[in-house]
Amino acid sequence: MPSQHNSTHSVSSFFQGNGNGTQTDSLILGKFDTQEQLAALAKVVEEMTKQINAQGNVNVTVTPQGLRIVLQDDYKQHMFSRGGSDLTPFFEDLLLLLSPIFERVTNPLIISGHTDATRFKQAFSSKSNWELSVNRANQARKTLVEGGMPEERVLQVTGMSDRALLNSVDPESSENRRIELFVLTTPAAEIIESLFGTQGTSELEKAKDKARFNQPVYREEIVRSDVTNSPGQS
Fold first, then answer.
1. Can you tell me the distance from the alpha carbon of 187 to that of 221, in angstroms, rounded to the nearest whole number?
2. pLDDT tier at 204 (50, 70, 90 boundaries)?
3. N or C: which end of the chain has fewer CB within 10 A?
4. What is the per-residue DSSP string for 114-167?
């Protein structure tokens, strides 16, 4: 269950301000595809995280493929219980605070979980950091949905284990334990979708059908079939 902190009040106050700043005017329903739009979105995220003094745990970067939002541990705030996937109240409130952004921003979203290089240890368990990172990413997804993000915003939930360390010098550093939210531009989302067959397969099948139709034998088969199935033919 979501925590009973005042995150709901914080979200409400942010989107129902006096209209004199970016709080109410910069987020309109739709896609954010240009670098200028993504930069404006980054500013909104940064302003929101200041409401609960979470700016030290959030890093926002504009990239050519979209907006990368990194939520990470530090020595003061842990995102999850050690070896578990239950969110701590601080990070639960942070995700609930960010949820309304993904209600208005219709770009597809990738949620990835990352662990440090400490091996997963639990008695009588065969789990590894792979399962742990996936479970944590999925818990982040559930919390965002509870906060109002439409389920269909999520394109992918993935676990990266310790394969993408932010601090490779200290693989067990707290900054390596993180959740990343990647707001994809339309072109970037189309590339990822094509990798998993949703678009690429369709275009490939169209090309195959066109090539087959251009073969004389195939055209002859279609004509023969049409004649056979015409009314009045026996």
1. 39
2. low
3. C
4. E--SSPP--TT----HHHHHHHHHHHHHHHHHHTT--GGGEEEEEE-TTSS-S-
